[in-house]
Amino acid sequence: MYRTHTCGQLRLADAGTNVTLAGWVQTVRKFGSITFVDLRDRYGITQLLFNETLNQQLDEQPLGREFVLQAIGTVHERSNKNANMPTGDIEILVSEFKILNKSAVPPFTIQDDTDGGDDLRMKYRYLDLRRNPVKRNLELRYAVNRAARNYLHDNGFMDIETPFLIKSTPEGARDFVVPSRMNAGQFYALPQSPQTFKQLLMVSGYDRYYQVVKCFRDEDLRADRQPEFTQIDCEMCFVEQEDILKMFEGMIKYIFKQVKGIDYTETVERTTWEDAMWTYGNDKPDIRFGMKIGNLKVPSTIFLSRQQELSNSPLGVGGTGFAVFDNAETVLAIAVPGCAEYTRKQTDELTEWVKRPQIGMQGLVFLKYNADGTVKSSVDKFFNPEQLKHIAASCKGQPGDLILILAGREEKTRKATSDLRMELGKRLGLRKENEFKLLWVLDFPLFEYAEEENRWVARHHPFTSPKPEQIGTMINNNPVIENAADYLNHPYSNIKANAYDMVLNGNEIGGGSIRIFQRDLQEKMFAALGMDEEEQQHKFGFLLGAFEYGAPPHGGIAFGFDRLCSILGGSESIRDFIAFPKNNSGRDVMIDAPSVIDQKQFDELQIKLDLK
Amino acid sequence: MYRTHTCGQLRLADAGTNVTLAGWVQTVRKFGSITFVDLRDRYGITQLLFNETLNQQLDEQPLGREFVLQAIGTVHERSNKNANMPTGDIEILVSEFKILNKSAVPPFTIQDDTDGGDDLRMKYRYLDLRRNPVKRNLELRYAVNRAARNYLHDNGFMDIETPFLIKSTPEGARDFVVPSRMNAGQFYALPQSPQTFKQLLMVSGYDRYYQVVKCFRDEDLRADRQPEFTQIDCEMCFVEQEDILKMFEGMIKYIFKQVKGIDYTETVERTTWEDAMWTYGNDKPDIRFGMKIGNLKVPSTIFLSRQQELSNSPLGVGGTGFAVFDNAETVLAIAVPGCAEYTRKQTDELTEWVKRPQIGMQGLVFLKYNADGTVKSSVDKFFNPEQLKHIAASCKGQPGDLILILAGREEKTRKATSDLRMELGKRLGLRKENEFKLLWVLDFPLFEYAEEENRWVARHHPFTSPKPEQIGTMINNNPVIENAADYLNHPYSNIKANAYDMVLNGNEIGGGSIRIFQRDLQEKMFAALGMDEEEQQHKFGFLLGAFEYGAPPHGGIAFGFDRLCSILGGSESIRDFIAFPKNNSGRDVMIDAPSVIDQKQFDELQIKLDLK
Predict the structure, then answer these.
(1) Taking every pair of C-alpha atoms in chain B, what is the biggest distance, in angstroms?
(2) Using CB atoms, which residue from B124, B518, B592 is nearest to A167?
(3) Which residues in chain A are contacts of B201 at CB distance < 8 A?
């Protein structure tokens, strides 16, 4: 062993002890004939003092930043203590030292605030990983991993490894494939999730399964996506939705406690998918703040259960001669608290914000609900004050608030309103970094309609069960959509999934469902997705087969581990919480992968390039 | 929740309680108007009693094997207790039941001794997994996983995930590759191990790393190999060999204790690679039994340090006119304890055994060291009794032993002797199932000689450091072998690796090394393996780069997790300890993978088949 103690270990009580430390040179400070060196390792920093007797050796072997140093000496009480460092009461009076390895000058500073840009830090990721903020992220990641495993273990879950070389069944996302040399012409796929395997483990009676496992999706990457990502993947037998919700909100609360020291004692809120969309324009709402949407006008084809509510509203915003509202499919309002005094410059900026291509709206209607109770808007000539107050009331506007109204096509307008709400929540400091609010979103639609193919697609995945009371609707109706224009009246369009998402501060951190475990229902599902019997058999014959031999009721959930860590760590980017992430082109710029392979490899795999 | 208790939970103390159980029907036994059902889940079996009041319902809904059943009833004390079952004191008097799912008749019996053959059980792996022996294997696997993690955590190791989509650097085994759609014409590789990444983590100062991680090798499969396998992968900073040995024999002892309840208090034995080869003919000897090899003749080019020992022997077996020994490069003997009385039939069978193609020897020479001290051999006319006793003494033969002598080419003869020793150890019951003996094998040669290419290959891997005192030898000599015939006199041929294997009962369960952390030494190593500077840069530029920025001394080890579990579980086959293994052609016959992929996938990946 090159050391007797770590660089974070020694305290005043150790004074007088002879120690050997090893680590990296953080700083070298020369004062006349003495030299101070801060020596760093994973555990901390300890100050070394080289006095005049070592001067000559230091001159011959000068120390530089990031040199690897072994130092032998005695622990001394410091005269000039540093209360900010755990080892700040002591220093090591060095009697002997050895440079274990030198370092070139790093391309950026190894400090909390580095001067290195993203590209440089990714190329030299092994140096970036030395920085405290990155190290803290990986330590947090390990703490979350450990807490999740401990909770699951204590609750009787078993870690069972599922295979990585499986079968390509593209459905939704694209698979990464792996050519098989021993079975020329055939390919494995890397798993997008262990979904079918964990279901088979339930059929096998393993009862409670978990894995912290890599998954793969060959999708075009956005800033917060990676081609390989990690899931906390879980499945349980003989459970209903309520059992899963209880078990896994328990897990997240346990993680909060273990990792962040937070007692999350409140009940985890729940909402239906429809309520979330109606109220927040979003199926993963951030409920740390209000600013709920006022629905002034919606098409009669969606939110069917709300039509009554809407028609009872004292205000129809259409038909007043204001073309923007009259012609809009949807009109939505939010009340921005305490912002009635916004200047023209500020409201203009908001208009520009919603007109950006990412939002894509035509404009924004303002209504200032002044503190004195008067209202003033850009549409005063179409609406009287009474009507304007009704608009304000629709989104719970109070005197002093600025009401923002968006109008246009339903889907786009709702999304824009949600984005605007989130943006203002951020600007107004309502999305507090150290506040954590969990939310279960329930009762998703089981299907979405795929217009191009005039068929259903599974909103969650094809193994999700409908609500128990709607199994009959699914079994007893033909999934084929005879009349495309009338798809909303097909019985399948109203089937709700027995599925649930867990949302944390506006991010989906986990999602799952009670699964189909009946062969006939599973076949009906596959048929609804346009798979004929042959395709079903080719892709999922093993699962349909398994359902014939006593498949139990079961369900599960998967948490996006990278995302969960990033939110707990207070960051927007999952990349900061991955030791060796890939960039937006799916490249690891440090090792320079992917890369070309040898002709010998092509020959053995019996494939060749076919570049367009 | 479909149940109040599991099928392994209820005891006499629960008598009178109303319970709901759910599980699989193991057996149905009808006795007149009452029916007994054994209900099974992961946790155990509970007997259900259906009395006459449920008879009609049972007739309408007959139960079959593997049906999924929910039963409500009251816990009763059994009149006929079963002491072999934890729940054997009670039964459930069923008041209500529900068939949750039916089952077709399984293709084999779900019992400890099944009637299903290997192929059938692999195809219906989800049913095979229900069998107790398979379940116990996976439970043991999880227990080992958990124990290893706990030990490593308690010793300050951090689980850090390394990437799966990396760069192909074929060196030794073949890589599985993954075509990149976003970088057409380029490929990722799946990791054969996280070797370079864990070393980078040491360069980054993470100090103690571990992972229980899937690795991939595209090799032709033997019975105990899988294309994907799991490693317990570990690395430490600022350590020497001794630190690693202590840390990881500690881990294995901890696993013994936690998983098997065994206190492995003895010191773990150590041997050098040369001693192991000399004494056991094998670098992973089973030291549960003796039967050490007597070296009667070896070529003068190997075991150089033993030549003195050999030349001091009172016996040269060559030159007596017995052509088999005279012409042999190597003559080796083992003493089989207490077998001097073997019949002709028995010795003939042993001769046939060594002549099998897998062993490939020409024959076997016998020497019976009778209990009365006399000797009798098949070569009596070439050796007098005194000489024969010397031969027996070379392998520590005692009166009553049967001495077996093999002669031929060094490598083949030594391997054959080792195989014969293992076979006889097994036949004589010397390899006891419940005895566990650990052994460290040290001081491997750093290089092997590759005749075809007249260059060195790394015996362990190219990142293994030579012994500290031999670094100079490596740095200061040209690795090029000028004279192929004389390669044994090249200074590199005597360099020993700073490497270690952990052997358990004759199986290598782990191996590792102290790593090279100096750029110049690493370059020298790559050069010795025949890599020019360009190739070094292309394949390992990132690592050489990292070594310039303060790489610390480090080393590590990786355990073959599948193998470790199989040995602890008392099985020869790792496949029994993998939930979803592949067969010898690398196929998963249950899901039928690998398989063909769609033309669309080829198009997107810009590759095509090139079948020979």
Answers:
(1) 93
(2) B592
(3) 126, 129, 579
